[in-house]
Amino acid sequence: MSSLRTLDPVRTRDDLKHFVEAPNRLHADDPVFVPPLPSEARRPVDRELNPFFAYGEAELFMVRGKGKVLGRIAAVDNPRHNAAHQARDGLFCQFACVDDPSVAETLFDAAAQWLRGRGLETMVGPVNFTTHEECGLLVEGFDSAPRVMMPYNPAYYPALLETCGLRKAKDLWAWSHDLSPLDERLLRIAGFVQRRKRLSVRPLDLADFDAEAQRIRHVYESAWRHNWGFTPATDEEFAVLARRLRPMIDPRFVLLAEVAGEPVGVVLVVPDVNQALSAMHGNTTRTGRLVDLARMLLATPRIDRTRAMLFGVVPRLRGCGIETLLYVRVHEALKASAYQGGVELGWTLEDNTAVNRFLEAGGCTRAKTYRIYQRAL
């Protein structure tokens, strides 16, 4: 490494502050970049805020040059992931970097060395500590801003990773629907399924939020259990995720399907708060943050897009039409609302043929591709 650059692990509160703020400084001029709220940017890497650190470990690295952060990365040892998948994977995440292969190589080599030292054999990512958080590097779809809780990176990132010896492990797809009228066949199927006596579809009851969250968790863990990379969340991880989502939830767009009172399917759509966050400039001073907050609040009433974060049915009832009923019902709810800017669904696994075909039949088109990479250690 150049004598003008240093590789530093994060050790102090000041180090952590610079680590968290790095993307805002690196991508301030990128018109598609959406600066996160400072609390959201800090939460994953703060050991007191992220319940991952109750069982896992991570090391954070930065490359500095001429008084500036040129890049950052987190190397992650997630033992619950490895136990669930009988693997010896080390994860990486929080990657942000200038367009300089030498900086990227320094970061990935440091992460690889730390992971090897813990007896791990493969480096996989980006996975933001767990698959319940943001996953993947954007490789297609750079022309539009990311939806809420989806990652973003400039178009030069994939080449940086490939230069560092990382190769594709799996692609994740995001889909879009412009809320155009649905195919009559879907409507007929939904009408037929809805007449079943023991089946009901209802909106979320915010007054009973904690219990409703557990019903969603029941479906989520059952429906996603056998998906590539999935590891059930701990109680605290799920509680933190639920608390993050609650301020965004509009109960009209969170539907539970139940059979004789048992939750068997869920669709969870939230307003795209990134539309409001994009009005912020990622300022790091206290005054700047207050100005950013005012901009965000003024932009909030103009949100018209949504993101479908969850859409699934428990395995034993797949193919019975419940998916179609949920899809049609949430489409109707969105059409009757002020959110007319379209919905993004995802992500889905590239090889989840059944779900991807269903979305295509429902009028969705692929909007973005995110990639999980891997590299032998």
Automatic annotation (TrEMBL):
SUPFAM superfamilies: Acyl-CoA N-acyltransferases (Nat) (SSF55729). InterPro entries: Acyl_CoA_acyltransferase (IPR016181), BcerS-like (IPR039968). It comes from the Bacteria. Signal peptide: none annotated. This is N-acetyltransferase. It comes from Nonomuraea purpurea.
